Amino acid sequence: MSKKFLGALLCLGVIVVVYFSTSLPITAPSPTASPGSTSLEEKICAKVSVHYGDCKRIILIDTNSNLAFAESKLGILPVLISKDHTDIVKMIHPLLYFQEFKEEKEERGPISWAVKNNVQKDFSVISGFATDEAKTIIINSAGDRQPNKFFVRDNLWVWYITSKDKINLPLEVTVYNANGHIISGVVKVDYFGFFYK
Predict the structure, then answer these.
(1) Whole-model pTM?
(2) How many structural domains compose the chain?
(3) Residue 17 lies in a domain
């Protein structure tokens, strides 16, 4: 009888061990960065620093548009990133200069733009600054598109759109205030963001 009891106890022990070993979740080791690797933000800042002397921060990485925006002491630089969001494809010049936007506000109004066609095949971008006054921007000549925007600091926003097609110039843009009133009417913008009627 003790042999039967010992055999049953041994079988029960094996069943318990098998049950617990299969019910515990299997965890894969967490990936660790290899010793020489750097993050996308670090890569962007290093490249911006080479061209503009410093890189304060990466303000935004838009994975839908494959764009990142880096801030230096001089301004904001759009950067095209790879589709897997791990590497820099191209820095998009010209830089959006803080000082230029501040100095030209009286002649230009509440927004400024820079258009870059064919950054690479099937990729063009419009990017620019806007003040708090410009609550809504509609790009009439691009199918009445409203651009993406993000806040930089007091009274300063960045607006941008991307396109697979070449952006036809001049742009026709309408700017609205918080009450929905047109504050800039339909203005035309050439390549460098200069406005004319």
Answers:
(1) 0.75
(2) 1
(3) no
